[in-house]
Amino acid sequence: MTQPALLLNNGVSIPRLGLGTWQAKDGSEVEQTVTAALSVGYRLIDTAAAYGNEPGIGKAINKSPIPRNELFITTKVWNADQGYDQTIKAFDKSLKRLGLHYIDLYLIHWPMPAADKYINTWRAMEELYKTGKVRAIGVCNFSIEQLERLAAETSIVPMVNQIELHPYFVQTDLRNYCTQNNIAIEAYSPLGGSTGKLLEDPVIVNIADAHSITPAQVVIRWHIQQGHIVIPKSTHTERITSNAQVFDFELNPDEMTRIDALDKNERIGTDPNTANFNWNTNLVQIAHYLGLVHW
Ligand code: A2P
Q1: Fold classified for 5-193+223-234+265-289
Q2: Which protein residue has the closest C-alpha to ligand 1 atom 14?
Q3: Is 156's C-beta closer than 6 angstroms to any atom of ligand 1?
Q4: Beta bridge mates, 258
Q5: How many CA atoms lie within 13 Å of 246's alpha carbon, on the beta-carbon side?
């Protein structure tokens, strides 16, 4: 698989397609999943301290024959670790758990506006970036208002905003703001999450049939043509493989318009403006492992 890339606002190249690992359990599950993904050409792996699977991902990366500089590893600072000093410490812990010397992209997992710590957290991210331990920094789930506050009070424009994005939830205003400000848009829950509803939508199924491809490939290709970085999650090797086979066909303008028209403004995940969950990192990792939480 050839991996098209996109240039971030600091000139760092990021693969357009990566593997999401939320809900992939630490240990053999995530290790096998990442190993399978690397073997079929994925180079971008997306995790978070909160997912509790950094050790397994690190094992897969470190035993892979692929040179480290060909991989693009993303992880995220968890809510309970927000604040300047805590963020610096949390970064070092993630680095250790992953068994790596640097991270390609470090993200603030949630803005947590009620805690009002994201400005100091971002200053720590800027510091980490300046030390060279991380090649790019960004945020997740940030609104226009929160991005504007970062622009007014800090000095580095985030390279990425990772947000919930799929044809049922297209967040047009936020995407336009990011594009105008040179912030790359990374789509999480790109397939509409685990309910499967989007992949059964008659419009998606009809376009899939027309191209003899899977509904997931239609949706992933829609993201690519929209200009997003896209990180579908699967723990099944055949899905991991087929989800990445989206660079040898194109959706025509009419198909793109039909998919665009599916927007229902329907968020499936947590609303970032009200989310203020602040469990400590160990607790949230256990909760993730048990499948109890969806952040
Ligand atoms: P699984 O891990 O069992 O393959 P999202 O990336 O939007 O969060 O969606 C992930 C969900 O979609 C997971 O439940 C994943 O399940 C499922 N999924 C991933 N790839 C495919 C596919 N090609 N066909 C059907 N379901 C898929």
Answers
A1: TIM Barrel (3.20.20)
A2: 194
A3: no
A4: none
A5: 29
